[in-house]
Amino acid sequence: MRKSLNNLFFIVGLAAVVIMFFTFDVSFAELWGYITKAGYWLVAILALWGLLYVMNACTWRVIIKGSGPCKIDFASLLKITISGFALNYATPVGLLGGEPYKIMEMSKYIGVRRATSSVVLFAMMHIFSHFWFWVTGIVTYLILAVTGDLPFNAGIGIILFLIALFCWGGIYLFVKGYKNGMVVKLIHFIGKLPGLHKWGKRFEENHLADLKKIDEQISELQGQNKRSFFGSFFLEYVGRLLQSFEIFFMLLLFDINGGGGVDGYILTFLHSFLILAFTSLFANLLGFMPLQLGGREGGFAMSVAQMGMTGDVGMFVSIICRVRELFWTSVGLLLMKVGGRKGSDE
What we know:
Blueprint: H1 2-21, H2 28-38, H3 40-65, H4 74-90, H5 95-146, H6 154-180, H7 183-190, H8 197-223, H9 226-253, H10 261-285, H11 295-306, H12 311-335
């Protein structure tokens, strides 16, 4: 059964990658031109994401150890992490692909219950750190606007205010979820959706004890394992900041360096951070789309324009980021067919 599901996940992901490859908005000749222009910076970007995946695996390991021993070696955990993110990129509503796969794979090592709670906690921390990342983006924009580096008017103020409300609302919900658990409520909510009432009610009745135990483990991470909670949050938040270097490298290719010198490079990094923050917000709002088709490109176009940069910069950044996604998604899918061990569920 597990092998059949693994094959299903692999086929769905592979189909999405093929579709993505043939739906670039540029010709293959233009695509190759973008890649050659990136040159060695593309290698640096791919390596940067290798580091980010290592940090993601470290976050997950901290969460797992917060509820007991971690019985999986780091290389295997990293493999599952990369494959899980690959499926999240490739499938609609991302988490519907990667998270079930990670639960299935991790159950061989730590049992279904702990695997489920660790995956849910990791997904929660990943999203929770994004909300704080976007809040930091708002503060950074306001600081640069005060210094006269970026424009500010009533329209921008309203947009930033709405984004702030959205972020603080998300942070509030997650804080409540960490304190009280959210799995039982989530299944109960799903059961109210059209067509899922019978399934939701049956699933909740058959697995209520396990679901409550998972909620207990979620609340324990924040309530009792403060070190694990803040350690995992720190790794995820720093990972979001480091991701800004991906855009920073590409801006340097266009000789955008804030006038040069240390201050210029710092300013360029802050612009890169803002481009990433607002692009990721826009793309995540359109997360129901496979590989966030169109959402990320539109986000880059609007973000670089707000930073006073040309459309060519936005197109280049979006294309290279898409190439990077294709590369690591392909790697993740290939890793699904490499290694692994048999195990029994708890």
